[in-house]
Amino acid sequence: MKLLAQQRDLQAKIPDIEKCFDVVATLQTKKGTGEATTLLQNNLENAKASLEVLIADLQFLRDQVTITQVTIARLYNWEVHQRRFRQAATAAPKDS
């Protein structure tokens, strides 16, 4: 849940940074200040990189959840099979 919240925050933050970058780039052409543009560019790159890492982490977690669910289902099915086998083994002598 924490990763999903971080992903939402970054996805909301990136467009804002891009808008600020556009505004600062426009101002830079008029005033000639490059520090703000460099700072915003670094922030934008960092936010995009963080988003990519979060997306990869979420995909990994989804895969792990799927693997865990499949394993639990297999164990349950094995246990059901074993129970039926035991019931059949105990019921067979009674029929003889």
TrEMBL record:
Name of this protein: Prefoldin subunit 3
Source species taxonomy: Eukaryota, Viridiplantae, Streptophyta, Embryophyta, Tracheophyta
GO biological process annotation, one example: tubulin complex assembly
Family, as annotated: Belongs to the prefoldin subunit alpha family.
Species per Swiss-Prot/TrEMBL record: Tripterygium wilfordii
PANTHER family: PREFOLDIN SUBUNIT 3
SUPFAM superfamilies from the UniProt entry: Prefoldin
Family matches, as Pfam families: Prefoldin (PF02996)
Keyword Chaperone belongs to the record: yes
InterPro entries: PFD3, Prefoldin_subunit_alpha
Domain of life: Eukaryota
GO molecular function: tubulin binding
Keyword Chaperone applies: yes
Keyword terms: Chaperone
One Gene Ontology cellular component: prefoldin complex
